[in-house]
Specification:
This protein has one domain (about 1-130): Thiol Ester Dehydrase, Chain A. The two termini are about 25 Å apart. The protein is elongated. By secondary structure, it is α+β, with helices and mostly antiparallel strands. It contains 1 helix and 6 strands, in the order βαβββββ. Strands 1, 2, 3, 4, 5 and 6 form a 6-stranded antiparallel beta sheet that branches.
């Protein structure tokens, strides 16, 4: 799992119980996963297709620093499947897991199109490649 992004839980991120609002966390995850998919597929023409069960394990509170981990687990012809874990940076306690997040490469009309990728790249070298 690659943990690239950290977020500081601020007052505007809290729910009525004073803990991190799930909707804020899911917004952060979708954005982080999209960036990861864009880099892996070498195109910013991809969309979120599917998220499996979202498992909230522990809560986070104001002032906590959380980190988002994403890992590519499978390449399809037009898709990429990712896994996600969010944890507390200081305590290392898991806050949330998602087994599957699927992104699909699409053309200008939103129709799935082959992306041509078959393996995971762990650096930003994809950003320097010529587009497919």
């Amino acid at each position: 799992m690659n943990f690239y992004t950290r977020k500081w839980v601020k007052p505007e991120d809290l729910n009525a119980h004073g803990t991190l609002f799930g909707g804020s966390l899911l917004r952060w995850i979708d954005e982080e996963a999209a960036i990861y998919a864009i880099i892996q597929l070498g195109t910013n023409s991809c969309v979120t297709k599917y998220m499996s069960e979202i498992n909230f394990i522990n809560s986070a509170k104001q002032g906590d620093i959380v980190e988002l981990g994403i890992k590519a687990t499978h390449f399809g012809r037009t898709s990429i499947t990712l896994g996600c874990e969010v944890r507390n940076k200081i305590t290392q306690k898991s806050i949330l897991t998602i087994d599957k997040i699927v992104f699909v490469s699409v053309d200008e009309n939103g129709v799935p199109k082959p992306h041509g990728r078959t393996e995971i790249t762990y650096t930003d070298e994809r950003l320097r490649e010529d587009p497919i």
